[in-house]
Design goal:
173 residues, 33% helix, 6 helices, alpha+beta
């Protein structure tokens, strides 16, 4: 499948079935994240793999954003290691972008492997950071739910294929 076809086929899955994610596939997804580019190749990313009943129940007690996926990846960055663009006088911390690039790479690898995902950010990160006793320097950027879509409920939303025209989002200067 071409990359464009892969991008078109990927959708946000909000209903997963009970099938476990094969460990080989999970390792490939994590490897894709490990290889993803980050600012100045600093690799300030920390990924927590939640797949135990205890960890998933704890997360589900805080947010509905786990959607009963058998695996949820908590994607964080270490603010003491992330690149800050201080050379340009704006002090921008690139950690959230690095985590987003890593998450996108893992999301697309999961899709290529026949799995479904949901990139989630509808939660209070500090509640989750606290519940999982994350060190203060680790900042939770998003959750990546991973699993197999429920055959009846796990399809794309009706808005999935709605896209703006190219002229609405691209402008040449």
């Amino acid at each position: 499948m071409s990359f464009i076809d892969l991008v078109k086929s990927r959708y946000s899955c909000r209903a997963f079935d009970a099938r476990p994610v094969e460990s080989e596939k999970l390792q490939q997804i994590l490897e894709a994240g490990r290889l993803a580019p980050t600012a100045k190749n600093g690799q300030p990313i920390k990924i927590f793999v939640l797949k135990s009943t205890e960890a998933l129940e704890k997360l589900r007690g805080i947010t509905r954003m786990a959607y009963n996926a058998p695996v949820v990846l908590m994607v964080c960055y270490d603010e003491t290691q992330s690149y800050r663009a201080s050379n340009y006088n704006d002090e921008h911390d690139c950690g959230d972008m690095d985590a987003s690039i890593v998450t996108t790479t893992m999301m697309m690898e999961a899709t290529d492997l026949g799995l479904n995902t949901l990139w989630a950010r509808g939660f209070n990160a500090s509640y989750i950071e606290s519940a999982f006793n994350l060190p203060e320097n680790l900042k939770l950027v998003c959750l990546l739910d991973v699993g197999y879509a429920d055959a009846e409920l796990g399809g794309p939303s009706p808005r999935h294929s709605e896209r703006k025209e190219m002229s609405e989002i691209v402008e040449e200067l």
